[in-house]
């Protein structure tokens, strides 16, 4: 179920707008690493969540089916390509579904504006993951 979700999401967002190439961080400002366990337990459920007035992400981006550990790992790899570690505001995954004018999101997303603002608790969770939050609560820096 979730594998096609993130494959389609990756293709869609890469085609819809381009993101400037991320600069390679220096040793002193190395980007945090993305944590798989945090992704699996806190980020993936966001894509399955029902939001009033919006389709769930997986409805458009995935066929139905059960998720497995292997699918979660593939999803992690695909979704990781849509973020700039340490920089949520430069990450397609976070900016694409935000309200266009009010919150700084993209002008186009057929699935609607999933997050009304950067204060939405699920948006905050995504931003924490991009900033390097670990499943145990520590930062990845």
What order do the SSEs take from the amino end to the carboxyl end, as H and E? HHHHHHH
Number of helices: 7
Strand content: under 5%
- Give me the Rg, rounded: 14 Å
What count of domains describes the coordinates? 1
Separation of the first and last Cα atoms: 32 Å
The description of the largest β-sheet is:
none
Mean pLDDT: 73
The chain-level structural class is mainly alpha
Shape type: globular
The low-confidence runs, each spanning 5 or more residues with pLDDT under 50, are 3-27
Notes on the structure:
By secondary structure, this protein is mainly alpha-helical. The chain has one domain (about 1-15, about 35-130). It is built from 7 helices and no strands. Helix 2 (about 35-50) packs across helix 4 (about 70-80) and helix 2 (about 35-50) packs antiparallel against helix 7. The longest helix is centred in the first third of the chain and has 15 residues, at about 1-15. The radius of gyration is 14 Å and the shape is globular. Residues about 5-25 have low confidence and may be disordered.
Set out the fold topology:
Layout: H1 2-16, H2 36-48, H3 57-61, H4 69-80, H5 92-95, H6 100-103, H7 121-130
Core attributes:
141 residues; mainly alpha; 7 helices; disordered N terminus
Brief sketch in words of this structure:
The chain is built from seven helices and no strands.
């Amino acid at each position: 179920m979730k594998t096609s979700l993130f494959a389609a999401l990756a293709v869609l967002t890469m085609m819809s707008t381009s993101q400037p190439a991320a600069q390679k961080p220096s040793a002193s400002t190395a980007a945090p690493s993305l944590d798989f366990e945090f992704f699996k337990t806190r980020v993936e459920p966001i894509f399955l969540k029902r939001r009033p007035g919006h389709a769930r992400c997986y409805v458009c981006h995935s066929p139905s089916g059960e998720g497995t550990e292997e699918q979660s790992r593939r999803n992690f790899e695909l979704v990781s390509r849509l973020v700039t570690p340490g920089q949520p505001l430069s990450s397609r995954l976070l900016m694409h579904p935000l309200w266009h004018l009010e919150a700084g999101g993209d002008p186009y997303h057929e699935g609607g504006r999933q997050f009304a603002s950067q204060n939405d608790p699920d948006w905050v969770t995504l931003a924490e993951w991009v900033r390097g939050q670990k499943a145990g609560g520590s930062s990845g820096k």
